[in-house]
Design a protein that fits this description.
The complex is a heterodimer of chains A (150) and B (754). Chain A is an alpha+beta fold and 150 residues long. Chain A contains 5 helices and 5 strands, in the order ββαβββαααα. Chain B has 754 residues and is α+β, with helices and mostly antiparallel strands. In chain B, the strands form 7 sheets. In chain B, strands 11-12-9-19-16-17-18 form a 7-stranded mixed β-sheet. A 5-stranded mixed β-sheet of chain B has the order 1-2-3-4-5. The chains are: A alpha+beta (150), B alpha+beta (754). Chains A and B meet through helix 1, helix 2, helix 3, helix 4 and helix 5 of A and helix 7, helix 9 and helix 20 of B.
């Protein structure tokens, strides 16, 4: 069946099964591989994207549920060479290690700061529930605080 | 120790080689030759046939490209190697482009080949047993910097010397009158200057110096200073390419199901049920399982779920964590033990001791749970095989692909990507073998095989489950008179060999020194000191897990030493200190740790608070940690702060060291709090992050890392943060509650709530 999606400002029409999770639509149909597959059960957050401004885990989000919604992925954060302040804070604090979870982390952090521009440590604890096996959490917290000041 | 004497020693001759690069420009690299008569080995026959360790290429248009044959998995290896080269080449870090070269056999990890590294002893054996040239690349054992420390600086120095000589010849001046800085050679007297690019062609005609002089560490301008990692910008924009991100024209996707039962296999499946489903192209039997191939991953996954499969249980339906624990407990007392160390007469010393303490510890199987699930893309055309993946061991991946496609290893071309975590998991042959098997069945079409998280958790090469029984004697003053330790566990070496290359790597595990590392080489002065091990044979795949044997042995030994301190009424810091008279580097770490953590022997912990310490040596480095915890009256545990001191010799990139320590601590903390793989009815119980829980941001303690500056040879870093965290935490819980933790994970302790 044909589904029309708005991804990073572009409108795309795809002929796919309606239960295909948004994650695989982004990665395999639209070539946006910055969004990662980690668990497939909305547990780890590696697949986090924004749907109408809200951070959501795309691995369990069927495409039929997001037609018409504004979808934003990691690829849309920077404008050319100008990085989003969260991305810049991530570089300044040398956050990523293997880097695999970081797209999801950054998308979760961007959504948090859009909703709550000056989050406390407790706010960050509550909002960032993604998993990082390299253990970059201390730097993530620091980078979010830095981005909040930027 | 007998096991050490068995370890292979290869004498090495290292040779700097330089020459003309493909496409023009200068290449300088480092080759290792084996001084072993009668073997083709790593014979240097010029650039094209040389076992180059890494090379730097300077193109006529001035680009400086560094090929690093080591895997970047977040440990900062691209940056660290580039720093070592840039230091001597006299360029800025930003002037170097780093790439992982496609693998066709020009590389060797000299440290692993030339040192009896317990971590990779099977591979060392292999070099002995296989006469033909054998390119080995492994990133593991925290060896990258130890391997590259001198070699990479020599490469940089040689290239610089050749460029300077080329300039001197062109200007007809003495090379001593020329200087190199920031990518140019200058002749101060005449004010002339040429860029490295302009000199690259001419430098190819200069013979590389055989023994270039290196800067003394005091003259370093780059090495030892924090530098931003070169791989990070691509990792904040989504551009970094991991194995799972590879896209090829006409690519198909495969989903896989492997046998649910340990030691079992797939009896049958009914492909007809799914062959008509949308997008499905094929159902392919593979090593250990069956794969469904479809036009998209989602189609493949859905079809796989619909595929009726019958499993053989391998006769292991009775196997469970409980049954394994019972077997282990029996082996503690009756098992057929192999002596690993026997100093003095511990049994007699125990009989004479004023006090004898005994304790049994138990640790579970652990999964690696890398963020990026296992995956590999393969394309087979005739007898040519191409694979794309992130791997810690391209050599093993190459063999896996060759076996899977039924071709010789030299027919395999490998494209190595970033890895979404490694931790020891990505040095197995399984994924490339399966991908090649699938691609062979769909010849001419690239196929990307992706394991689900459930497959990843249930078909790992696990950290072994381990049980240990300790006895120690104390005299009237509390001093240790004797120490005995029996370990019961599977051998990683034997299992890795059996799983990956049984005909070559077969081993009974008796000589597996990795399983006792950290237990048989303790720094404490122990007058009578006995360690033995009972090697268990179980249908459970065990493998290399971050810090390997240290992951369990640090927990056992540092908890037990804490028990001795408590039994003798002494402060844990003072007790350890008194035993370290022969270990100056450990003593220095311990002293600085106490200072930085504000350790106060007299202070009683406040209600609901506790602190504990642990000290451990591994991979050529020395690490100590103090953990502060809070515990509510309901038993809710919070790990508040970890102070870590490391002596890892001279440093390359201190910021990376701090990051790796933070990483190692979180990895070990996840295991200590939640980590366990259990078995029920012959199957792994856990399957995904909801039931294989790990530390998240809210549970992250504040970590403070202090690096001891010194001039010792660099030690490893990537694995060293992991071993001390579990014992330091367990000792902190004892400090707060008076209750000993002898079994992990803590989520199973009835008085705690996580």
């Amino acid at each position: 069946m044909a589904y029309t999606l708005k991804v990073n400002g572009d409108t795309k029409t795809l002929n796919i099964e309606g239960d295909t999770p948004l994650l695989w639509v982004l990665r395999d149909h639209l070539g946006l591989t910055g969004t990662k597959f980690g668990c497939g059960v909305a547990s780890c957050g590696a697949c986090t994207v924004q749907v109408d401004g809200v951070a959501m885990r795309s691995c369990v989000l069927p495409v039929e549920a997001v037609t018409g919604a504004e979808i934003r992925t990691i690829e849309d954060l920077a404008h050319g060479e100008i990085l989003h302040k969260v991305q810049q804070a991530w570089i300044d604090n040398q956050v990523p290690q293997c880097g695999y979870c970081q797209s999801g982390m950054i998308m979760a952090a961007v959504a948090l700061l859009e909703e709550n521009p000056q989050p406390t440590d407790e706010d960050i604890d509550g909002a960032i529930t993604n998993i990082c096996r390299c253990g970059t959490y201390q730097r993530i917290r620091k980078a979010i605080h830095q981005a909040a000041k930027a | 120790m007998s096991s050490h004497s068995k370890a292979l020693k290869i004498t090495k001759r290292a040779l700097l080689v330089g020459g003309l690069a493909v496409g023009g420009g200068l290449v300088v690299g480092y080759a290792y030759l084996r001084d072993k008569p009668g073997t083709a080995g790593f014979e240097a026959v010029g650039i094209s046939g040389t076992a180059l360790n890494a090379w730097v290429k300077i193109t006529p248009d001035g680009r400086i490209i560094l090929a690093v044959p080591r895997a970047e998995m977040g440990q900062g290896v691209y940056t660290a190697i580039a720093m070592l080269i840039a230091e001597e080449l006299e360029v800025n870090l930003g002037q170097i482009e780093v790439e992982h070269p496609d693998v066709d056999g020009k590389y060797a990890n000299a440290f692993i080949l030339t040192e009896p590294m317990p971590h990779f002893r099977p591979l060392i054996w292999l070099v002995e047993r296989v006469a033909a040239a054998l390119p080995l690349i492994v990133t593991g054992g925290s060896t990258t910097i130890r391997d590259g420390w001198e070699a990479m600086r020599r490469v940089g120095a040689s290239a610089r010397i050749m460029l300077v000589q080329a300039a001197a010849m062109r200007w007809d001046v003495a090379p001593e009158d020329c200087g190199a800085a920031q990518g140019s050679v200058t002749h101060a007297k005449s004010g002339r200057s040429l860029s490295y690019g302009e000199l690259a062609e001419a430098a190819t005609r200069i013979k590389p110096p055989s023994d270039p002089q290196l800067k003394p560490p005091s003259a370093f301008r780059l090495v030892g200073t924090p530098a931003p990692r070169v791989d990070i910008p691509a990792k904040v924009t989504g551009r970094a390419q991991f194995g799972i991100d590879v896209v090829l024209p006409g690519m198909l996707y495969a989903a896989i199901r492997q046998c649910l039962f340990r030691g079992g296999h797939i009896l049958s499946y009914d492909a007809d049920v799914v062959l008509g489903l949308p997008g499905v192209e094929a159902v392919v039997p593979v090593h250990g399982g069956v794969a469904v191939v479809a036009k998209t991953y989602w189609q493949a996954k859905k079809a796989l779920e619909a595929l009726p499969i019958e499993f053989d249980d391998g006769g292991n339906r009775e196997l469970s964590s409980k049954s394994i624990s019972e077997l282990y407990r029996q082996a503690l007392d009756e098992g057929d033990a192999v002596s690993v160390r026997a100093d003095g007469n511990a049994e007699r010393a125990l009989e004479k001791s004023a006090t004898v303490l005994e304790a049994v510890y138990e640790l579970p199987f652990l999964a690696h749970a890398c963020m990026e699930p296992m995956n590999c893309t393969a394309l087979v055309k005739g007898d040519a095989v191409e694979i794309w993946l992130g791997t810690q061991a391209p050599t093993m991946a190459n063999w896996g692909a060759a076996e899977g496609a039924g071709v010789e290893t030299d027919k395999v071309t490998m494209h190595v990507t970033f890895m979404g975590g490694g931790f020891g998991r990505r040095q197995e042959m399984d994924i490339s073998r399966q991908a090649a098997q699938i691609a062979r069945a769909l010849e001419g079409r690239p196929v990307k095989l992706i394991w689900s998280r459930e497959e990843d958790i249930q078909h790992d090469s696990y950290r072994p489950a381990v049980m240990a029984k300790f006895k120690a004697g104390l005299d009237e003053t509390g001093a240790v008179t004797a120490w005995t330790n029996r370990l019961v566990l599977q051998s990683v070496e034997a299992d890795y060999g059996k799983r990956n290359l049984p005909e070559i790597l077969g081993s009974d595990g008796d000589a597996d020194i990795a399983m006792t590392q950290g237990a048989d080489d303790m720094p404490y002065a122990l007058p009578h000191y006995t360690v033995d091990k009972v090697i268990m044979k179980l249908p459970m795949d065990v493998g290399y897990w971050r810090s390997v044997g240290h992951s369990h042995n640090a927990f056992f030994t540092e908890c037990f030493i804490d028990e001795l301190a408590a039994a003798s009424g002494q402060d844990p810091f003072a007790y350890r200190r008194a035993l370290l008279s022969q270990a100056p580097r450990q003593l220095h770490v311990l002293d600085l740790l106490a200072e930085k953590a504000g350790w106060d022997a007299r202070a009683k912990p406040a209600a609901g608070r506790g602190r504990g310490m642990a000290l451990h040596a591994c991979f050529g480095s020395f690490v100590g940690q103090v953990v502060d915890i809070s515990l509510s009256v309901q038993g809710e545990l919070s790990v508040d702060r970890v102070v870590c001191v490391i002596d890892c010799g001279m440093t390359v990139n201190p910021d990376t060291i701090e990051a790796q320590i933070e990483s190692g601590i979180v990895y070990g903390l996840s295991a200590a709090l939640y980590g366990e793989i259990t078995l029920q009815a012959g199957q792994v119980v856990q399957s995904n992050f909801p039931d294989y829980e790990v530390v998240k941001l809210a549970a992250m303690p504040v970590v403070e890392t202090h690096i001891i500056p010194n001039t010792n040879y660099p030690g490893g870093v990537g694995e060293t943060g992991t071993p001390p965290i579990a014992p330091a935490l367990a000792n902190a819980i004892f400090n707060a509650t008076g209750k000993r933790i002898r079994k992990l994970p803590l989520q199973n302790a009835d008085f705690l709530s996580l």
